[in-house]
Amino acid sequence: MVREISRPGPGDLKLLGEYGVATVHEAQGRTGLMASYMRPIYRPANLFGSAITVLVPPGDNWMLHVAIEVCRPGDVLVVATSSPCEDGYFGDLLATSAMARGCRGLVIDAGVRDVRDLTQMGFPVWSKAVFAQGTVKATPGSVNVPIVCAGAAILPGDVIIADDDGVCVVPRARAADVLEKARAREANEESKRVRLAAGELGLDIYDMRAKLEQMGLRYE
Amino acid sequence: MVREISRPGPGDLKLLGEYGVATVHEAQGRTGLMASYMRPIYRPANLFGSAITVLVPPGDNWMLHVAIEVCRPGDVLVVATSSPCEDGYFGDLLATSAMARGCRGLVIDAGVRDVRDLTQMGFPVWSKAVFAQGTVKATPGSVNVPIVCAGAAILPGDVIIADDDGVCVVPRARAADVLEKARAREANEESKRVRLAAGELGLDIYDMRAKLEQMGLRYE
Amino acid sequence: MVREISRPGPGDLKLLGEYGVATVHEAQGRTGLMASYMRPIYRPANLFGSAITVLVPPGDNWMLHVAIEVCRPGDVLVVATSSPCEDGYFGDLLATSAMARGCRGLVIDAGVRDVRDLTQMGFPVWSKAVFAQGTVKATPGSVNVPIVCAGAAILPGDVIIADDDGVCVVPRARAADVLEKARAREANEESKRVRLAAGELGLDIYDMRAKLEQMGLRYE
Amino acid sequence: MVREISRPGPGDLKLLGEYGVATVHEAQGRTGLMASYMRPIYRPANLFGSAITVLVPPGDNWMLHVAIEVCRPGDVLVVATSSPCEDGYFGDLLATSAMARGCRGLVIDAGVRDVRDLTQMGFPVWSKAVFAQGTVKATPGSVNVPIVCAGAAILPGDVIIADDDGVCVVPRARAADVLEKARAREANEESKRVRLAAGELGLDIYDMRAKLEQMGLRYE
Amino acid sequence: MVREISRPGPGDLKLLGEYGVATVHEAQGRTGLMASYMRPIYRPANLFGSAITVLVPPGDNWMLHVAIEVCRPGDVLVVATSSPCEDGYFGDLLATSAMARGCRGLVIDAGVRDVRDLTQMGFPVWSKAVFAQGTVKATPGSVNVPIVCAGAAILPGDVIIADDDGVCVVPRARAADVLEKARAREANEESKRVRLAAGELGLDIYDMRAKLEQMGLRYE
Amino acid sequence: MVREISRPGPGDLKLLGEYGVATVHEAQGRTGLMASYMRPIYRPANLFGSAITVLVPPGDNWMLHVAIEVCRPGDVLVVATSSPCEDGYFGDLLATSAMARGCRGLVIDAGVRDVRDLTQMGFPVWSKAVFAQGTVKATPGSVNVPIVCAGAAILPGDVIIADDDGVCVVPRARAADVLEKARAREANEESKRVRLAAGELGLDIYDMRAKLEQMGLRYE
Fold this sequence. Notes:
Six copies of one chain form a homohexamer. By secondary structure, chain A is α/β, with parallel strands linked by helices. Chain A contains eight helices and ten strands. At the A-B interface, helix 3, helix 4 and helix 5 of A face helix 2 and helix 6 of B.
């Protein structure tokens, strides 16, 4: 259990949060994406914040109570299990507690329950499963240690961006750089969007015809 | 095919139906839950009723017609296959027939189709898949025999509770006892919810600090 | 890359499009259905059109730009990968381009991203996954060749019918015949629906009792 | 924890054990089979015995130590988890202990480890996974209660038959009846085998041609 | 049911059979491969032959008896299901019958049983599952029609090549051409193998360094 | 591409290699284990070495050629993909090249082919799939960067231990400490093994009875 962690500046966080997961993932060189099985419990949903990392044993949600104590406004709980598990670690009571501490949402490589309540509370969750299966409080885990969640490596204080496309992690130290690249990418996309909407072809906009011919594409 | 089965009292049923799956599952000692792949075809959805159990061959929905004959108002069709299958056993015609007999919904460890119609009809279904694949009517199965559906053992007349979190089975004989425990649990949760919403920590409410320290949790 | 393909007559297309996937699949003898993992990104959704087939390498969406050039109003992009892949091949820019060419929707045995944008644009997609993972443009594939998509064999110009139940392919040459059978089936179902809604049993309407008894069904 | 259970007679057990899973499963009307994901850790392998049932929490193998105490020669440990888990609940130490008590093998709807040692010891195991992941000893479960293991309902004292094709459960009360049917089936198959090996066709031996023609099979 | 089909010349077949699946798959431009879940029931195993295609309903193996009648020496049974199914369609009796007709092996996108017997008989099978689950004989299917098996499109008379790496289909008309390319590829690989074994690097043999530098690879 | 990395001392490596994956995983506090889907292509198999990490695009094995150049005797190739892929990245030619450089084996979160050749060569591989599907050489990746492989975070130069139970990663800096703990654990297990083999119960050896009673275990 680590109490004190560094967090990204709130400015960078907020600005990064304005871009979607697909844009941020591209902006940092197609890294940091969690597996496609991580789905939001309701849609549309989006989330950005600073990661509180939690490592829990299978079927045991004790450490979530421990983690909530160190949540500050703007934090996101990111939970990995020490072995694969789909149990419902988190429900409306924990969400009530987390929201009271300013926690913005949950990303969990396991299951969640009380999803109707969580939806009504507007507490966004990305999870591997929705499952009413209860958990015990018998074995401690860790809070604010490096974890691997749904295939992505995360340190406490990393930036979490999530929307209907999934969840992406931006290392804290790279936040400013990624923000800049996301901004550039979005600007570039906007001009493309207008031309494509007008019927211009990507083949021409991106100047692909010569390259495709050279790679052997033949028209019949 | 068994025509006459015992059913739970309508009073217990209705009262149990007021609690969600997570609460009922906890109240009966974390048993009776179906696998997490059983998902509602629309959300929010909820269902309670007395089980008519059906065992069908793969790709053959003949027995559903047989089962509907014995449905009474308040019943729920619970369908297992004799080997894993995702075919669309059930669609709008069977739903029309089932509703006409007072059947409240369907729980099927297989596929379902016509989901848009079923949604418009307000006929709730929990299934393993949505799949248009048709079935034949060539081989009989069984109605109102003990079955295993999505990992849960069910007898005809058991209580089925389903919502957005999944499906739970309460043995008929335990319905009154589980009801009482669910009531106690809910009451207890309500007081906790108020304290958690006020920012009090689960660590303190549940008095976990000493136990965690004893289990070796260290703060850094 | 094949530029010129035959397409079904727009009349047949439109009429077939009025029937759902379950009906069309039955009408053509329970063939042509894609696997149940092909799900719409929003619901309700429906689609009909003439297939532009695309075969792409894993993690490479170059050919989608090539395919869009040959789209005509009423076409549907149908994309298979040369090996299984869940990457997000298609997002809002490609959708903008496809819509500008009259393309009606996308069926892809892989992933898609920007699903919130696609939902707002009303561009329907059936896919194996929602995944923000980006793709490269390095290796050509094929357009308008025979493909296998989610277990179904498809030729360019085949009819695609999709709704909340999944995706079905009707070979172009069979479109008129299937249309007729779908019409007959629907008419027949309508009369059954009325009788079932009135509480008559399928056992009686379909005259099943004797056959079931002969097959050994016993009542207890 | 139930100490005293009824077991099948050793004679029936031994005789049933001479038939394979496919034969026994057919002989009892195609019921009692566990899911196809239950695989032996080495092949060829076979096993028959009387079930000691164990229900364990995810990631917690404490109850296996409890269960071994009540094992008698000829017993088989049959382990289900209260929620899905692939952890390695069982390794060479537990196998050493189980063998010392006369236990013949393990059927576990979870993971197992030390598979090279278990193979060398000749201790057969059917499991959902091979996984080195360790477990804790923190939460009790149950021994000799009714369980559902890999989709099959089992009571303590039921007969377990396992081979390279999978695992089948025969209710204790039906053992003698199933034995008789397995014997009849095997005898019948033997005569068929000789005729098929001589080149005679199943179409003729089973007299299928007329029935197939009547069902609409046409030759082209 | 189609009795008469064209088969590849036995010479081409035999020669193609000398190359493994990986080589043949490459030689025909990386097409024709079945999904990776198709695994041999024993290893090492290999198979080549001319396809008899069979389409069967879920849980119904009637058509296998029909198909065996048209098997000639050198044929391979290739079985697809009309919807996904893992049942054990094929066991030692059918294998006895198939071997008596000269059938060389089985490729089935479903389950198989009696695998120990099949192994002892030396009858190779590639399947999606090993599962003792029995099937009925109630609904006809088709023999020698175009099918999609494990993601690959197959016509009767196509060449089937299978080994420990999986299963590949070569269209009959392309057999001679693919054979030639496989031969060239193998010759080329042999010289590379010698150089690689001597410690030369692929980077140098394939002259990759300049291209990698141009693509942006940097050494640190 | 990073050329120079630190490696563990050969002494520690060799000694750690004498313990199995289950023991090493326990010795380092149940961390570092790859997912259970990582299976050896032949059994028995075991491997220890220093990791050369490789990150590859889906369907593109170019970087494997780059990685082999930096292999030294005692190294193990550990390959992750930038998005999930089962293609056969590695076959007998790459194995020939890797062995010539002293590489001891391969751990790949993707597919492998030519498994019969690899088995005959005695080159051990742990992979997610066996799949003949070919790959291209079009897009660079990275060598000797931090990766996540099958759920485990790995740095270049970390220790890889693999056997029939799976694959475990020991951070280079912890190798000596884990070695000591593995030794202690093994010694402790040996004495337990003797007592268990003599029929003593784990309940008594580990002194569990009082604790179980206190946790509520009741005997009936």
